[in-house]
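Incident log, support desk, overnight shift.

02:14 A customer reports that sequence design results differ from what the structure should imply. Their input is reproduced verbatim below. On-call engineer (initials T.W.) acknowledged and began investigating.
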């Protein structure tokens, strides 16, 4: 791996150190430096991919229109648009730098996943043996946003080089898909067995609800790709067993599930906190509600309410990039909670909710068309190279987990996965076409021999 490779992939695995926070309108991670340097290098080396204008111009025009009609501010829009545009352009250049070799890039991603999984296991083992510097890395590294997390069966939730276990659960989800497939089906397309075990164990030790969602999605995709009804009958009980194990043994997971039940089924916020009351009375009731509702569950519920309310007002094209903060100010339920849970306003706590709020039906339509059009499933009737469907489904896991519980468009190089998902389909269609041409030639040769 060269220094250029390191600079490109560092952003996917490391987000614990911020250079600037208060001095700039956004958090500036140290991993942005190689992106900026390499971007200038790519601009000098390659032509600008003009097809990107079909993505960037609609985002710009709809964003500016929403600024004009006071759905958004120019500062909010410009900050997010520039960030998204730079990432789209940069990672498109990255694809060109690697000659669109998705297989090579995906193997490099898996190598990085294996490294951070090992570091995560060292973190957990150090906690077990009470080796403080081994699990609290701030002792010897300037990690001003990173911390270790209590919880889980062992007293610590693995987060490795990521700021939170959930970020590990999302970013390593494609690697988990590959590791589980190769271990269960005894294949070695990408990873050795020991690497599979390391990644799977590390993933489970996050005790993250988002990681468990990734596991559930992985099992469903296995059932979908193998195309037999029996796999669904196997997948569903396995998923239920895993869910029950996590619910019984992992407090963080069960508290979130109970909180979602209280919020979405019982309607505890509206029931207990609706109407006018004194602040003292409200805070007493808030305390009772918080005994039933995990804080993160309320944050998701609140952002769902905000996004849906904003969507109803701006259904066609949303209110523009960067507008969730203004929508949050207008529609949030924090007044009911005494104003103590004003979190995740900029990213809506979920990429799907953010797209629904910022881009409306136009954005939702684009997302679903993109996912289904460029999806590569396992061919049931032919002996095709498995790298294409494995790569596609592995990346789909991170797309789904991001849509559900991660609202930042560019965090941990997410847009690189989007480009790999697309170009994996491009290379697959070229592979199928070439294979079809070879079959036609063989048929013509056989016909010639018969004649």
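02:41 Re-run completed on a clean worker. Output:
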């Amino acid at each position: 791996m060269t220094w250029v490779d390191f600079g490109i992939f560092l952003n996917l695995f490391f987000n614990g150190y911020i250079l600037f926070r208060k001095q700039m309108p956004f958090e500036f991670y140290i991993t942005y430096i190689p992106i900026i340097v390499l971007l200038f290098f790519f601009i000098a080396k390659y032509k600008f991919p003009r097809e990107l204008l079909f993505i960037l111009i609609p985002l710009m025009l709809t964003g500016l229109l929403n600024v004009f009609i006071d759905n958004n501010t120019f500062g909010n829009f410009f900050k997010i648009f520039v960030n998204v545009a730079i990432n789209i352009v940069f990672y498109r250049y990255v694809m060109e730098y690697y000659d669109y070799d998705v297989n090579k890039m995906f193997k490099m991603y898996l190598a990085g996943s294996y490294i951070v999984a090992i570091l995560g296991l060292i973190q957990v083992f150090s906690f077990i043996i009470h080796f403080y510097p081994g699990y609290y890395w701030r002792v010897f590294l300037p990690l001003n946003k990173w911390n270790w997390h209590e919880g889980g069966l062992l007293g610590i939730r693995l987060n490795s080089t990521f700021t939170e276990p959930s970020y590990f659960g999302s970013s390593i989800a494609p690697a988990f898909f590959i590791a589980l497939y190769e271990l269960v089906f005894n294949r070695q397309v990408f990873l050795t067995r020991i690497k599979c075990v390391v990644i799977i164990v590390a993933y489970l030790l996050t005790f993250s609800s988002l990681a468990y969602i990734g596991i559930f999605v992985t099992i469903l995709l296995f059932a979908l790709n193998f195309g037999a009804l029996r796999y669904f009958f196997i997948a569903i009980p396995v998923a239920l067993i895993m869910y029950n194990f996590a619910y019984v043994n992992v407090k963080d997971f069960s508290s979130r599930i109970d909180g979602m039940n209280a919020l979405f089924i019982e309607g505890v916020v509206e029931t207990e906190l609706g109407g006018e009351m004194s602040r003292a009375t409200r805070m007493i009731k808030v305390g009772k509600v918080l005994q039933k509702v995990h804080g993160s569950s309320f944050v998701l519920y609140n952002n769902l309410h905000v996004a849906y309310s904003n969507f109803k007002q701006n259904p066609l094209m949303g209110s523009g990039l960067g507008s969730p903060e203004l929508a949050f100010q207008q529609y949030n339920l924090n007044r009911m909670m005494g104003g103590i849970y004003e979190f995740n306003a900029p990213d809506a706590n979920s990429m799907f909710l953010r797209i629904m709020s910022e881009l409306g039906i136009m954005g939702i339509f684009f997302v679903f068309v993109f996912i289904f059009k460029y999806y590569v499933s396992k061919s049931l009737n032919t002996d095709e190279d498995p790298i294409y469907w494995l790569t596609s489904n592995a990346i789909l896991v991170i797309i789904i987990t991001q849509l559900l519980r991660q609202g930042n468009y560019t965090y941990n190089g997410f847009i690189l996965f989007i480009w790999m998902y697309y170009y994996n389909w491009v290379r697959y269609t070229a592979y199928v076409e070439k294979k079809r041409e070879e079959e036609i030639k063989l048929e013509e040769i056989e016909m010639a021999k018969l004649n």
